[in-house]
């Protein structure tokens, strides 16, 4: 079951006008919310990020926080998976093709659910591979826009190399992954770039930093140079679907000792404990 513009219905019955500005211009935003044991994970934070994205494209929020919460809970109950992720998609609506904002148009609101599969034990033990590429996306990466073609092309670069992620560099500094945030370990300290217009403000990014504070893991938020990335003791990827993943090979060279490192092991253990706490309510 999906939700589209006020109705819950089977996805096969859902249709959107070809004049929808999401289809014509990519004029919209999205949000992705993980659900564990039918409980949405950090729902308030995800809805706050959605509001930030809507503000960024000057689109009024079509629902109150309570309305979003009710829709999300209904969607969770309407689908069979205990662990799932909800995809929220809001566009400016249907109007004749014109670059300027239309007046009096109702936004299109779409929600769907998919099963949420955690990273396999094999990936957590062996780690994943990544490549680097120049970050050629637009200048407002903090907006979770549906216009994802640059991310798609960058992610495909790593797929072409049978790698898990493309780690991005802009002006000689780390930004993020094509579909993840990035942390490194240098001199046994966890480092990550600051949240600004260059990266998407990940909710898992926030959890990792909170866990670092709680468990006294040395950490800092700072600009990270390309040379620091390449020489890192550890590299970690984080996202709502990846959770926490260790990168053990970058550009076909081993990261550190070529195996998941101790900071990853600590953070993954703490993350799983935190997740279990959320699942228990």
From TrEMBL:
GO cellular component: cytosol
Gene3D superfamilies the UniProt entry points to: 3.30.470.10, D-amino Acid Aminotransferase, subunit A, domain 2
Keywords: Aminotransferase, Pyridoxal phosphate, Transferase
Gene Ontology molecular-function annotations: transaminase activity
Cofactor: pyridoxal 5'-phosphate
Domain of life assignment: Bacteria
GO terms for biological process, alphabetical: amino acid biosynthetic process; carboxylic acid biosynthetic process
Stated family: Belongs to the class-IV pyridoxal-phosphate-dependent aminotransferase family.
Listed name of the protein: D-alanine aminotransferase
Organism of provenance: Nitrosomonas stercoris
């Amino acid at each position: 079951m999906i939700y589209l513009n006020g109705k819950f219905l089977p996805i096969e019955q859902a249709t959107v006008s070809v004049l929808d500005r999401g289809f014509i211009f990519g004029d919209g935003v999205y949000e992705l919310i993980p659900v564990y044991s039918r409980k949405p994970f950090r729902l308030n934070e995800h809805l706050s990020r959605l509001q930030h994205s809507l503000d960024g494209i000057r689109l009024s929020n079509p629902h109150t926080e309570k309305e979003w919460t009710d829709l999300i809970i209904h969607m969770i109950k309407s689908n069979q998976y205990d662990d799932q992720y909800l995809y929220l998609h809001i566009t400016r609506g249907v109007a004749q093709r014109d670059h300027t904002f239309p007046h009096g148009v109702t936004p299109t609101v779409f929600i769907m659910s998919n099963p949420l599969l955690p990273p396999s034990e094999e990936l957590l033990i062996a780690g994943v591979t990544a490549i680097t590429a120049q970050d050629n996306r637009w200048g407002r990466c903090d907006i979770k826009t549906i216009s994802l073609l640059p991310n798609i092309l960058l992610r495909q670069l790593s797929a072409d190399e049978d790698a898990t992620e493309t780690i991005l560099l802009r002006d000689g500094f780390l930004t993020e992954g094509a579909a993840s945030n990035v942390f490194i370990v240098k001199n046994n300290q966890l480092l990550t770039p600051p949240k600004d217009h260059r990266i998407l403000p990940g909710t898992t990014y926030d959890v990792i930093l909170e866990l670092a504070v709680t468990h006294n893991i040395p950490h800092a938020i700072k600009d990270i140079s390309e040379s620091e990335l390449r020489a890192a003791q550890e590299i970690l990827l984080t996202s709502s679907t990846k959770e926490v993943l260790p990168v053990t090979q970058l550009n076909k060279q081993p990261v550190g000792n070529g195996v998941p490192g101790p900071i990853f092991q600590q953070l993954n253990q703490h993350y799983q404990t935190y997740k279990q706490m959320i699942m228990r309510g």
